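Protocol check, entry for the methods section draft. Step 1: assemble the input record (protein sequence plus ligand SMILES). Step 2: submit for complex structure prediction. Step 3: store the structure tokens unaltered in the notebook. Ligand used here: S-adenosylmethionine. Step 1 record:
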Amino acid sequence: MSDILDVSSDWLTLRETEDARARSRDLALAAAAMLGTRPIVVHDLGSGTGSMMRWLAPFLPGPQEWVLHDWNASLTEHAVVGPPTLDRDGIPVSVTSRVGELADLQPTDLSAASLVTASALLDVLTAPELHAIVDACVRVGVPTLLALSVTGEVHLDPGDARDGVVGRAFNSHQRREAGGRRLLGRYGAPIARGLFERAGWRVRTAATTWRLDDHDPRLLGEWFDGWVDAAVEQRPELRALVADYRRQRSSQLNSGTLSAVIHHRDLLAWPR
Ligand SMILES: C[S@@+](CC[C@H](N)C(=O)[O-])C[C@H]1O[C@@H](n2cnc3c(N)ncnc32)[C@H](O)[C@@H]1O
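Step 3, stored output:
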């Protein structure tokens, strides 16, 4: 696995509440309505610490078995040993994990699947990894819910002429080559949509947005720092330009006058 793309469990925990608020309940309920025989087996790809399971399980009937796939065993362990997650009827779901590269995903890895899910994953994948995932889902033939893919659109309030410069550099950073892997960034969701449609599947999407302000200044501050750091890593010549920008944004953050809207898209695909 690439160290460059290692996400921390602290960051996943910090963002979990906003992720839960932002994801599309309409698409979750639509997926729930498509489920067939019991038990419901959900394979969550790039599961991290299990945030998608904790959000989605209460929308779905039981009994439920979750299989968390990630290449980072230390993240999935949080979900496996953590407090129980309850299904729609208040019954604990069972959880197991599989450590592996999604590039190698085979239909047999999605055994007995009723539903495949992922959240905040597509932008950090490469094209071969996304192809492997869509191919496996299509061959298994069960609904697939891919939540919270970034679109690359960010709006800060109050606006600043430097927002666009930083935003464009951040979007380029998302498309960088890291550890020999060229990432899809904001193209992940449109490409997934195209692959499912080419396979003859139906697709629904929903706009899902993070709305960050002084209700969670720590998340807003960490998101902003990460956004600017990535932009400067991509374009080091921006370092001088962003020094004053950071100071100004930090003072707005401290006075509770800064807010940010970060656009995402959820996607539900299913066979006709
Ligand atoms: C941004 S995190 C999202 C985690 C979780 N879905 C959530 O919403 O909190 C992306 C996750 O995908 C995993 N991941 C990224 N690329 C992967 C790959 N090629 N194979 C397996 N896991 C991968 C990372 O380890 C990380 O846990």
